[in-house]
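Bench notes, bay 3.
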Amino acid sequence: MNDKSFHIALAGNPNAGKTTLFNHLTGSRQHVGNYPGVTVEKKEGLCTHREQRLRVVDLPGTYSLTAYSVEELVARDYLVNERPEVVVNIVDAVNLERNLYLTCQFLELGVPLVIALNMVDAAEKRGISINTAELSRLLGVPVLPIVARSGRGVPELLDTVLAVSQEKDHPPTLLRYGSDIDLALRDLVPLLEEGRLLTALYPARWIALKMLENDEQIISQVMRADATLGRQLISRSESLTQHLRNTLDAYPEAVIADHRYGFIKSILRQGVVARTFDEDRLYASDRIDKVVTHRLLGPLIMAAILFALYSFTFNWSSFFVELLAGLFEAFGGAMQTLLPDGPLKSMLIAGVIDGAGGVLGFVPIIMFMFFGIAVLEDSGYLARVAFMMDRIFHFFGLHGSSVMPFIISGGIAGGCAVPGVFAARTLRSPKERMATLLTVPFMNCGAKLPVLTLIIGAFFAEHQAGYMVLATLFTWLTALLAAKFLRLTVLKGESTPFVMELPPYRFPTVRGLLTHTWERTWQYMKKAATVILGISILLWAMMTYPGLPADKAGEFAALRQQAAQNVKDIDQLEAEAKLRHSAAGRIGIALEPVSRWAGFDWRTNIALVGGFAAKEVILSTLGTAYSLGETDPNDAAPLKERLKTDPRWTPAAALAFLVFVMFYAPCFVTAVAIAKESGSWKWAAFSIGFNTLVAFTLAVLIFQAGLLFR
């Protein structure tokens, strides 16, 4: 095998199949992070083809290389600064004209380019035939037909990538933009070349185009490099802008875009695309959508699919959950027997096994839930959910594009609020964006899912799937009402229109489903084994120290000597007294005068305080709090059984606890994300306070109603 690793970048429009190809190429040999200084996700992986190792980077999806968004800026900067040997431009064969707009900009930038014409199977089903050889000849770069989800054509694509990587010369393509633009370019390009202004990074003509398009990043780079020459170039650009405004009532960027699309259309009309169908007939996806997105049937179908998802999750994961619970219980019993009494034993059993181990015990549920969500996502159904929910979102003062941040955050239980917060940046209206940022933490993220599963399984076991559907619907309703309140008060303003392109339905591939499921499950496991473990041990220490005062410890010693009670009962009383006197216990007791209105005792308060750091900690802290003081491993019971037998945990108290966990303050990482995306910590603080107030109000109402009707 050749030790040299070739560097290739995958680029293309959103929904063109770029990530599907990336997953097919790299499989499990990939890692995810963020680009330095921004919150845009960075994916890298390795693959091997013909004994040649390839380092593959999945660039953010973008429609253009003009830096109107962070994603476009990241993609462009990566191509310029990292200079991959080959850029693979993934193009949707069904939407060829729109996708080739980005291709034009790659050609003008002069990057080593290979076009992967994806989803040719979907194009064929629609009667669209594409002459890839002619398209390749007209564009001057290789064009390979592929089906990324099945791997069809991918080996040939990689053969071409390796061949192009050996080529040295990749001159930029010169497109024509009409006499006015071309004349301005002829004035600007010599000035850039003579002044050597950024020409080591970009072609001079491309820099001139970006200046005419009013690309803020390029203009600022030019001004930093040579302010005098920069002002001269800007003056010429402004003259062109004024001329076009006077003659065509248009801006240069609009004229440039029109000519790019004209170039694309001229190519497609030269025998590249042939259609063998009646354009007015409905395709399979359209026929399905007539039913699935129907105003009346659509929501009913969505509810049925949610119920099926939760039924599948709970029914198929129960065996594995019980198996893991048995393993942790046996491990805890072994530690009870093998280790001598002392802080180490208490920390390992109460802090690690009953704490973080309790979170890991829900991995099967998380895995099955993520698998079900991956099916909905890869099939194209989640996009239909967004389309249907748009009708409702406008009523509550949100934009249709807010739907995806809600879904990503856990609109279908199991997401994460952090990427949901980042996904809200696609919203153009600042007030709609802020309303979305503040309400996505209401969704049932993967961290809340084990808590919901525990409480529903303990107190409402006969109707688990039904309660999960109700919890999901109640979550959406509460989030939308909160958004309406915000839009009527602190974030007043009109809603903006929503435009969305629905991808065709597809059969998910087994490999794609397993990859998505494993990625998300591994993130959950990694968090449980690192962050949650650390917080669990910290909270165990807070629940253990400073311990009982000497006089109190003496009282329990005297009781044992008198043997007036069962020694085991005395040990349990002493353990509870120690927990009460611990730092965490004192915090929980201090909150009890307020929290008791919602049915929360001091022990529950400890868990909820820990949940401000991360919601998974609620489960681990409850496990620790209810296991401290166990002296006989044979008496140990799963946390679910302990809660069921505790007289303080009535169904009303459990339901109030469940609702409070669903809605109270976002975890610390989400709060940081809100602060970063909003540009101010005051909005993160507002989110913590507002969400907690909403959650506590609902919990009090539920618990007090339970007291009235019991």
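Next record in the batch:
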Amino acid sequence: MNELHVIARTPLRRSARRQFIFFSTVLALTGFASWVMADILWRGGLTGVEMALLVLFVPMFGMVAVGFVQAVFGFIILLRRRDPYSISRTLPEQPPKPDELPATAIALPIYNEDVGRVYEGLRTMYLDLARAGCAGRFDFFILSDSTDPNKWIEEEVAWLDLCKQLKGFGRIFYRKRAAPLNRKSGNISDFLRRWGRKYRYMVVLDADSLMEAGTLVRLVQLMEASPQAGLIQTVPAPIQASTFFARLMQFAGTLYGPIFQAGLNYWQAGCGNFWGHNAIIRVAPFMDHCALPPLRTARVRFMSHDYVEAALMRRANFEVWMAYELGGSYESLPPTLVDHTARDRRWCRGNLQHSWLLTAKGLHPVNRLHLLLGILSYVSSPLWLIFLLLGTIQCWLYWSSSAPPRFDADVGISSFLDIGGGELALILFVVTLGLLTVPKMLAVLLTLRDGARRRAFGGTVAVVTGFALEHLLSAVLAPIFMLFNSRWVIEIMLGRHVGWNAQRREGGGGADWGGILLAHAGQTCVGIVWALAAWHINPAFFWWVCPITFGLIASIPLSALLSYVGVGEALKRIGLFRTPMEISPTSVVTHLAKNLEAAERRHLAPPEWLAPHNGLMQAVLDPYINAAHVSLLRQKRRQPHAVTNYLRQLQDRLVQKGPADLKRREQLALLMNADAVTSLHHRIWHEPEAHLAPWWKLAMRHYNTLTDRPPTALYR
């Protein structure tokens, strides 16, 4: 064990040299570019607008430089095919056998999710572990915070079915919290308070997560081999993209991701980050040291808990690693541009909250940097917007002046290179574009020189064509993302509430034109006004800003086009934007796809009149589901008289007027009380028909006609 300890600690001790080289390169690039920008602007003195442009340019170019340098170092590491700082290399030649591993919990927090996708993913992982002979070392916990009564009952029924089919009672557990306090972090905290001490490790998943048995086993083995490792984050590969937008993002993430991940690991080493899912955590230090600190008011909670928990784990002197070479970890992507930005809005709020922790005591400098980079990833959008607007104003002032300054004066760098300020500005512009483009080209080069990887993407033509189209579309989409993120930052800084609703993870059904128009109408207007103003200033300037204004003006039809599954499938058929996981999928991905298809064929949708209250109907009418639901509730010995009267009134309204008379929170209150659910079942079946609401009469007749239903569910 001492030898393993030395292996795990050596990279962390030597990482300071890597960080010095990395950030020295970033500072050198940023400093030189800022000097050139100052030289361009400093012709006849700096005006207020020019000074503001220079101040904004420095952090924005710094972010570009970080991405570029990270990709370059990642490219070098992958080219050498050996990274001594990889946590995967700490695994000994003879690791513990799978059946000798300590008990590990797999926590799956859900919130009003697609129940079929969640449970089929769990089924796939459970069976893969069983085939590997180590299912007995992993326990699954479905941790529900769902606030939709239909989802709640569907989750319970699906859990019963799954446990019966897999003989998983005692290995697959379901728990529904009474109130979803503190969102996902509160859900995990509640689980740890109840069951955390029974497990040495915990793997946290998302609703769309999928992990191979070999990956889960190796994660536990890595934790066993590295006693100082408190958290190991895998890199989830995107899968199951169907829409044009999701396929575009899946292709980009799969093709470009490896060099950025290797570069990120180059400078962060054992001071890595946590992305909230598809990671293994050492439970004891996580419980002892990673409770989220309170924010400024009791009503405010962290929306992005993962960065903070990684920083707290490192502060407790435990290492946080990214196992970017491990593989076997998967996730899904938002299907449309609007869904992507809705998720980004929540992440933006969470990252901006991290500004309160930048000066917190005891945090490692690298973790402070992670927090800062997370903030800048969103704040850079309004900075770029302000920079471009100030540039437009500067051009208007220049061309409207009766005696414009000599922009091409032979001063500063121009005097050495014998070029004017215009040519120098063009060179800086091209260099900036190069810093954004070269990392992608390096990723393409790395793929083309590896025959197996090249074939996995469909060949040279498919890789190069996909890269060209993706790069063009990303340039068109960039101003759209810029305005979205700028809006989110401004609204959050003004104190506007940001909700946390269930994510839409599946495409289909075509474009949501109402949502698209609402999301992009303002951007279209901004693009039109900006283009007209640029033409009024100078036709030449209009063509300079055309790459920005075109994307904004075309945002509505472009967003609609990216939303269609048919377009994505057509591109797949002709071989564009295909990924290795589509051409040669692993067994778990194949099994998941087959399970989802089988579940879709078995799915029986309730009639339209029943759908809004289908879950409540099943919990009240069906004796099996009623008994199962009651058995999963916490029994309360004593209840205040006022609560008893309130629940009795809700029961009377439900029986006499039907479920439409109750609000969602009132339905949840009844479903959360075992006595109330038991009483409702008895009343509905025993009271005279004249005392029942017409809805219940119709529901009972419909229930009695379903003689061919599965034994544990009316509708799935």
